[in-house]
Amino acid sequence: MTTPLTETQALFHDFIINDGPPPVAITRSTERATAEDLLSIYYNGYRLCMLEAIGDDFPSLKIFLGDKAFDALGRDYISQVRSKHYSIRWYGQGFAAFISESPQWRDRPELAELATWEWTLGKATDAADAEPLDFSAFAAVSPEDWAGLKFQFHPSLSIVDLLWTAPAFRQAVDDGATSPALPELLDAPISWAIWRDGTVILYRSMADDEPTALAAAMSGTTFGDVCEALAETQSDQAGEIAGGYLRAWVEHGWITAIEA
């Protein structure tokens, strides 16, 4: 009796994705290979495909760990995390969280931070395009409207807080260094902005209150409220400092629209 297509698909899916029992009964052997051998081709092929995708998304993490350890980490991830998107491009989005939470890997925080950094770089690459504003857009804003200004930011812009020198390690790998300095633990976390300018991925560190101000502005907080929050730590200089941050954001092409 022929097995219905939907049932066949379900059996193969359970076997390949969920480590279910191999559907030997509905797989025909050949003169050259048994049903078990044929099924193993699909089973192993899926994992190799997913490993390749993860390796492409996290190239410096793969170099840091080495092929053997990265293969073990990747296979752990594949065995426990199912793909939920039709595109393989997004399979690695939970990789950093998996490393942080996995009993086998969570004592290596530098791995999770390196994965976080590399995934954020990839997101910036794939983010939608948007035309940044220049300073002329602010000339039409009346003085009484400045406090209520809200900003829209480039879709590629992200903020990442890191306790390890992951950016330097990734940059060394990108530059082709044969023995890049391994990530080191910092005395205090550093906030980084990552964004795309055209086709070029850029990043810079941020200090003082800029990360907090930027995060607030990105969440829809008005410019006036950003200034008030800065006043708690910067006193009378809050307006000047906020203005300096805003100028830098415009210069970097981060702001794409304003709403009075």
Q: Can you tell me about this structure?
A:
With 260 residues, the protein is of the alpha+beta class. The protein has two domains: 103 residues, no CATH class; 134 residues, Outer Surface Protein A, domain 3. Helices cover 50% and strands 14% of the residues. It has eleven helices and five strands. A three-stranded antiparallel β-sheet has the order 2-3-4, with helices on both faces. A two-stranded antiparallel ribbon has the order 1-5. A hairpin with a 2-residue loop joins strand 3 and strand 4. The longest helix is centred in the first third of the chain and has 23 residues. It is elongated, with a radius of gyration of 24 Å. The model has no long low-confidence stretch (mean pLDDT 93).
